[in-house]
Amino acid sequence: xxxxxxxxxxxxxxxxxxxxxxxxxxxxxxxxxxxxxxxxxxxxxxxxxxxxxxxxxxxxxxxxxxxxxxxxxxxxxxxxxxxxxxxxxxxxxxxxxxxxxxxxxxxxxxxxxxxxxxxxxxxxxxxxxxxxxxxxxxxxxxxxxxxxxxxxxxxxxxxxxxxxxxxxxxxxxxxxxxxxxxxxxxxxxxxxxxxxxxxxxxxxxxxxxxxxxxxxxxxxxxxxxxxxxxxxxxxxxxxxxxxxxxxxxxxxxxxxxxxxxxxxxxxxxxxxxxxxxxxxxxxxxxxxxxxxxxxxxxxxxxxxxxxxxxxxxxxxxxxxxxxxxxxxxx
Length: 330
Prior knowledge:
The chain is an alpha+beta fold.
């Protein structure tokens, strides 16, 4: 039951050590501690002065996450030895959840799995979170870290976890580290991009047929990370019926078109910027133009605009963005 609820949720959302060295060339006596002992003592004092992760969560004002952790009975774990890495959503991230998703979190099993999905049983500071790094969470699911160049002048790189921008990183605790993120994450229940499509045959049956004709099932099912711009059945039905029948029987054209809908890199929505050119898997490295505005995001290719209906569906081999139009102009 919890697994089914989680599938629905996926659709609903989207200080340094200070050491005093002894000066002068005099012999040490028993009262003069060695450098190593001073270092060790300094580390112990610093460790004791840092709060535990649960206390840190409260000090940072992450009230919603704090209360949910208590409700799930996980507070003792975040006060324990660790080390842990915690990706803690902001209060507004919880506030933005649809009412049915908030209601689903009342299920203890669902809440426990969602919260454990935000915790990693090792310490991972921001510097260790490289682009496309797959991280195993406390409940044996995985999240993906990505690092994108921020196109605004003077801004640092953007770090995301499953597409959620890291709002504040490296908040240190005595038993680990906490990063504040801008979205609530939900456990992967989708598998690869191909498995994601197969779980919703009513929406993607025609898309699956076209991908099979194009010979791209292996690409959607392998471990290489890509961005998949997947049209729905409704998107394909915008074509003239005769054109669609032609594509379903022309493997070469189908391959060319569907490779246009797969990007070479893994790019969550936070990694796109307006007027960006992105490379596809199309044989001549065709580029698409990304258009980002107040109304959302569109892609332009082969003389066709395609709007993103649902962004940032994480899959084990990248990310899916669902689009409303097939980028194909006969």
